[in-house]
Amino acid sequence: MSSSTSSGTGGTRGAAGVEGGHGTRERHVSGSLAHRVPDLGAMELLLAVARLGSLGGAARELGITQPAASSRVRSMERQLGVALVDRSPRGSRLTDAGALVTDWARRIVEAAEAFDAGAQALRDRRDSRLRVAASMTIAEYLLPGWLVALRAQLPDTAVSLLAGNSAAVAERLLAGEADLGFVEGVSVPAGLDSAVIAHDRLIVVTAPGHPWARRRRPLAAAELAATPLILREKGSGTRQVLDEALGGLARPLIELSSTTAVKAAAVGGAGPSVLSELAVGEELTTRRLVSVPVADVVLARDLRAVWPTGHRPTGPARQLLSLTRA
How much is the pTM? Predict the structure, then answer.
């Protein structure tokens, strides 16, 4: 009876010991791998110690102090639970466990180097091209200067420009067909983040022979809204700003798909138009077009850089964005 009790007690202790050991093992293998495996810096240090036979030499090669190197080795030994390096006045020598860990570390460092080379290849491929989508006014009158400056900084980057109205720019970005966009509309298209890069003003212009060119008083906003104009197509930033500012527009006299075409029609005397101040500076200076003041309405707008929500520009796109702000 007594023997049976003792055996039972011993069995209980044995079971407890196994469970305790199993529990310790489970705790060791659970959790994040990053907490159980030394970091790359520690592995590179261990490889340098193995190659140079000196902790001090390894520290100098890696650009750290010897106390920092000693501390890193001790931390690695605590993390792994084994001694890795024997230190003596004659130098540092790997223990048997240290030699084995060094072999494993070498494979991990080689894999990390391959990972880094692959990531660099991805960056190089990304940085080798830049796809820009821009609304017409920005594409024609602002982007050329920005792209010349970008070319000076990134001569090996191939840039493609897709010009269209603001709605088309948003579609290109959301479809993944452009890396960075520029729009001129009243608001930011859905699904895009933005940054204001410049401000612009729309002005009413006519050929010198049009009756509005001889007006002594500013044009009333209501008269402008009721007059058929030479306009950009629906979806353009210019059309959006004008429509919102005037509360609606008359049916267009002519509807064209580029700022240059609208300007040419106005210069040719087809009728009045509303264009960006950026687009008509030369024509106003040479009197091929005349600016017509408008009362009681401000035709101002923000010019914005845009990109898909949550995907801040990187690489050449980020560089171009910084140039627009300069």
Answer: 0.61
